[in-house]
Amino acid sequence: MFSTLLIANRGEIACRVAATARKLGIRTVAVYSDADAQAKHVAACDTAIHIGGPEPRASYLRAQVILQAAKDTGAQAIHPGYGFLSENEEFALAAEKAGIAFVGPPAAAIAALGSKSAAKSLMEKAGVPLVPGYHGDNQDPQFLKSQADRIGYPVLIKASAGGGGKGMRVVESSDAFIEALASCQREAKSSFGDDRVLIERYLQKPRHIEIQVFADKHGNCVYLFERDCSVQRRHQKVIEEAPAPGMTPERRKAMGEAAVAAAQAVGYVGAGTVEFIAEPDGRFYFMEMNTRLQVEHPVTEMITGLDLVEWQLRVAAGEPLPLRQEDLRIAGHAIEVRLYAENPDTGFLPSIGTLSYLEFPPHTAFANAAVRVDGGVRMGDAITPFYDPMVAKLIVHGADRDQARRRMLQALAETRVVGVQTNVAFLGRLMRDAAFAAADLDTGLIERRRATLLPPPAEIGGDVLALACAAVLAGLGLSASRAAAVVANAAPADPWLANDGWRLGNGAYMLPIEWLIDAAPRQVSLVRQGTNWQIDCGAGLQVYAWQTQAAAGASGLAVRVTLAGRELGGTVVTQGEHVHVFMDGNTYVLERHDAMAHAGDDEQGHAGGLAAPMPGKIVAISVQAGDAVKKGQALLVMEAMKMEHTIAAPADGTVREIFYAVGDQVTEGAELAAIDDAAEK
Fold first, then answer.
1. What is the three-class DSSP state of 73?
2. What string of H, E and C letters represents the secondary structure of 536-572?
3. Mean of the per-residue pLDDT values of the chain
4. Separation between Cα atoms, residue 421 and residue 614, nearest integer Å
């Protein structure tokens, strides 16, 4: 076994690899960019080497710099994680030439499978069924359009060298093909340095099922069963589970043996994933093979009881596979969700910022258990525009699927994040969704169930206000429990030492609290009469009591409220004037309004402006000053976090001015264009 391992990655996967290496007694070397100098993965390793600027091309994609870091630190092996250089055959070959073990397949296998087109040709020769499509080298736009017309719409344009949902477009008609192709090629070029694409028939109500395979240097190869990754948004996986619901032993064996045959056809070594798309009748087609460990590998670990990173390291060190096919068993059911810094209400746009508050349910980290959290950030860390906005992976295990689903619901309800928008509430709605609960799965589930999964924001009711007010009162030092403590002789009786609203002669103490909810004021009145508190949240006075104690962060409070005889509980996090209430798996954000403090605020807005939703680069502009535009019409395209985002007209009008050009970098909130509203003329 190796004594020193360099981890050529960052974030969650770097921490994951470091955890197993530590368990095996292997010294670890981290690499980091300017943006990651204080990152969790740096602290998780024994030593760390700086490799460049914050952009991936200036750091984590600098193969020669990383190889030199391995040589300088005496690393005998490099683990590439996933993403970045993990499927780069030139990097794998350079490591091999340098005498450093690459924890992954041989360069030749990566090369054979790295191009989706080449891989499909290889599978076709091996007799693996393929979705009807075009996978050739002719990339002329008109030729590709003719192929799409031949296949029949809808078609899927897919970056030949792509992955992670990037460089993919569904095209519904011939008229829309050329524009979608250009957008797909730009994104592919930016993300992978290769703008070649392939075209496939877009299947209706398909499932995405993948097989985990493992091969060693001694000719052994096994499949570690399947994962269902059908629940996706924008072609990126949101929920993964194992085993796949409804999978029969016969189909599992057929898909597993097909996956093993695919791996053996290219002399594969290490961990790999063969991805299939399956139709409702059970027919399955080869999509691609990922020559690395997958983000969703923990669900396979949970149902098999194995550590796949340990298997990777042992295989890379020349050891045979620890188990044979007949030794492998499935135990229970596992579900993984990807907790992202993104806003589902704005088309899942990434959200950047500092994680000022971060709390998870009781769990293990990077190890199998009922609840597991694999994360690469800590409270106080920043989600930046340079890398994938994943906060953590939340994984649960149950005796069966329904127990795992219910356990995930509870775990999500105990997950609290402040500082960025997240998809936590959205994931909870997915877990409760009737179609998901019934395992009625397909890659279009989110769009199909959009009305229930992406409803309008929940109204903030009296229960939420009562919890928020308790945090305000605690911040003021007011206590609802002192009077009861005095009666029980558990506290000093001197009222002059109390800060609980006591008044001479048991007079009434009144405290108004004004909130701004969607910019509209909401008045709450609190009254203490004698030793009793009451609250009016808009439905009249109700008996009120509260208890608070510190939660995970300095700004967090665990709050218990008694409201008219009902017990309520939640976590409340205060950030300046903003109060975040976490209750029943939902998050509510309120703003406490102080009229005196804001008396001099400038209330004038910037009507007619169109602001950038995040930092990024302008990659396309489709209008110019003077053009008439319709609501929803594409104005320009931004690239951020390796994804393209279309900025559309908010209403009918006329473009007065475009403030940036193609290639310009813009900051979040920058005014991109000015539009004169047609309704105001």
1. helix
2. ECCCCEEEEEEEEEECCCCCEEEEEEEECCEEEEEEE
3. 89
4. 12
The region, left, alpha or beta by phi > 0 then psi within -120 to 50, assigned to residue 506 is: left
Q: Which tokens go with 264? A: 């053996």
pTM (2 d.p.): 0.80
User: Parallel, antiparallel, or unpaired for β 342-343 and 333-340?
Assistant: unpaired
* Distance from C-alpha of 91 to C-alpha of 85, rounded to nearest angstrom: 7
Q: Which residues pair with 270 in a beta bridge?
A: 215
Q: Which of 27, 207, 252, 292 is catalytic?
A: 292
292 noted as active-site residue = yes
- Token pair for residue 250? 């016969």
Task: Identify the CA nearest to 190 among candidates 216, 162, 152.
Answer: 162
3-state secondary structure 191-252: HHCCCCEEEEECCCCCEEEEEEEEECCCCCEEEEEEEECCCEECCEECEEEECCCCCCHHHH
Query: pLDDT tens digits for 411-467?
Result: 999 999 999 999 999 999 999 999 999 999 999 999 999 999 999 888 899 999 999
Alpha carbon distance 509, 512 (integer Å): 10
Distance CA 611, CA 664 (A): 15
Q: Among the residues of 271-423, which ranges form H helices? A: 297-304, 308-316, 401-413
pLDDT digits (tens, 9 = 90+) for 234-259: 788 999 999 999 999 999 999 999 99
CA 656 to chain centre: 37
Q: Record the tokens describing residue 99, joined without a space.
A: 């005498």
- Contacts of residue 250, defined as CB under 8 A and 6 or more positions apart, other chains included, come to none
> pLDDT tens across 476-496, in order?
777 665 433 333 333 344 554
Beta strands in 291-398 (DSSP E): 333-340, 342-343, 349-350, 353-354, 357-359, 371-375, 382-383, 390-398
Least confident of 81-90, 161-170, 384-393, 532-541: 161-170
Q: How many residues does the chain have?
A: 681
Matching residue, tokens 């900025």: 647
pLDDT tens digit sequence for 385-415: 899 999 999 999 999 999 999 999 999 999 9
